[in-house]
Write a structure and sequence with these properties.
The chain has 255 residues and is α/β, with parallel strands linked by helices. The protein has ten helices and six strands. Bound molecules: 3-methylbut-3-enyl trihydrogen diphosphate (2 copies) and magnesium ion. Magnesium ion binds next to loops.
Length: 255
Amino acid sequence: MENKTYREQLDLNRIPQHVAIIMDGNGRWAQQRGLDRTKGHIEGVEVVRRSLDTVVSLGIKYLTLYTFSTENWNRPQYEVSALMDLLLNNIEEEMFFENHVRLKVIGDMERLPKDVQKRLNQCIDDTKDFDRCTLVLALSYSSRWEITDAVKNIAKRIENGELKASDINESLLSQSLSTSFMPDPDLLVRTGGELRLSNYLLWQSAYTELYFTDTYWPDFDEDELCKALLSYQRRQRRFGLTGAQVEKTDGTTQK
Ligand code: IPE
Ligand code: IPE
Ligand code: MG
């Protein structure tokens, strides 16, 4: 056991379907090294590439990355511009074609610069038939924005007679969110040491397992990801039931 890597310790029959990550700590990583914050974001892009390779090789079907929040628009203009440039220059089909990964975006894309929108839409279209894994970038995203938008859409459908107020239920609300094409996250990882969700997937993470690490995003590697997955695999997801009820149905043991 001692000589096994974290990856070798994983139970490949219990890999989560959907992992969501709050990639935090780029700025502090850079500042600790006397570098400009934007250097941390540049390093962070490389970690996205490496993490995607690991995720695909483990058979995780959905990876949702918090890339830029609604609130991040309020950062200094130079940092926002640097982040938009990074996006524009790093969305390349090659990375998706190599692993048969489909790209999706959730968030208020219309607020993004036109050239970034164009690049993203092109890549979304070019990769739409890949099904090995879906990489979802949350861009100009916040849960409260998303839920408000969904409620507006439902209200419009009621106004034009397509729906009745009594048709509203949890399933309709889930289907009206930008994440309707995928299951809820099984595991949510936040790097960078903060113990909060920062307006990320609030509705979808009602029963998601949470994992927090102090590691800054630029230092996050395969070992760190596998450690998070191991922590996930050691837990029993009860969804309100008792441990004994769950054991009866799925054979997992109560921890
Ligand atoms: C996360 O890193 C990346 C984005 C929010 C775009 P930060 O830039 O928030 O890094 P810290 O939290 O300041 O270290
Ligand atoms: C959350 O990180 C957003 C992203 C990782 C894109 P922040 O650094 O913006 O979160 P807060 O403001 O510290 O909560
Ligand atoms: Mg931060």
